[in-house]
Task: inverse folding
């Protein structure tokens, strides 16, 4: 019985986990980007342009010499039409936002612990009804 309990506990810990992902949105200072010899970000960035359109850099971007030099997708004002851009002068950019996904450790641990606890209660109740108690 103890061996079965150990196996079921292992399965509970492996398959009953919850992971909460949170996205942290951070405004980037354009002047900082402009005055850095080479500025690089490795997570998604939205560039809001002065004409109301925006460019999405899904894998981040590299900026040098007052120009973003990375492949991005430009959306028009209605966000309906798109086109590919390879360079974007920083003089056309009104604001920049970076999006960084992180695991929310506290809620993930709490939810996983709760699921494991419920699973253990179910195992205990099943053992009581099947064997009349734990051996």
Result:
């Amino acid at each position: 019985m103890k061996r079965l309990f150990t196996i079921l506990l292992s399965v509970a810990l492996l398959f009953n986990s919850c992971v909460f992902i949170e996205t942290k949105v951070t405004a980037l200072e354009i002047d900082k980007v402009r005055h850095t010899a080479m500025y690089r970000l490795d997570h998604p960035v939205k560039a809001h342009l002065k004409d109301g359109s925006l460019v999405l850099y899904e894998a981040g971007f590299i900026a040098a010499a007052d120009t973003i030099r990375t492949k991005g997708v430009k959306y028009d004002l209605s966000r309906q039409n798109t086109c590919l851009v390879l360079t974007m002068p920083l003089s056309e950019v009104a604001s920049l936002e970076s999006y960084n996904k992180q695991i929310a450790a506290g809620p993930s641990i709490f939810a996983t612990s709760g699921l494991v606890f419920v699973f253990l209660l179910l195992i205990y109740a099943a053992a009581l009804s099947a064997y009349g108690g734990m051996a």
